[in-house]
Amino acid sequence: MPESEKRVAAQQAVDILHEISTILNCRLDRQTLSICISMIERGVHPEALAHVIKELRQEAAHQVGQDAASR
């Protein structure tokens, strides 16, 4: 498969996965989703990746709450 066809196929896959992500309200933009796909393709365990994303979101929310409380 030529390189241009591979890029088109990859973009279509990201588009479809982004639609699914939106339907499931995962709050992942296309760039973040692409990074996650790349990590999974390189062997990162999907459930572990999901856990890390959840933890990072919780920490970010906590930090926002602390920033708001300190004002």
TrEMBL record:
GO terms for cellular component: gamma-tubulin ring complex; interphase microtubule organizing center; mitotic spindle pole body; spindle. It comes from the Eukaryota. InterPro entries: MZT1 (IPR022214). GO terms for biological process: gamma-tubulin complex localization; microtubule nucleation by interphase microtubule organizing center; mitotic spindle assembly. Signal peptide: none annotated. Keywords: Cytoplasm, Cytoskeleton. Pfam families: MOZART1 (PF12554). The keyword Cytoplasm applies. It is found in: Cytoplasm, Cytoskeleton, Microtubule organizing center, Spindle pole body. Belongs to the MOZART1 family. Part of the gamma-tubulin complex. Required for gamma-tubulin complex recruitment to the microtubule organizing center (MTOC). PANTHER family: MITOTIC-SPINDLE ORGANIZING PROTEIN 1. This is Mitotic-spindle organizing protein 1. It comes from Drechmeria coniospora (Nematophagous fungus).
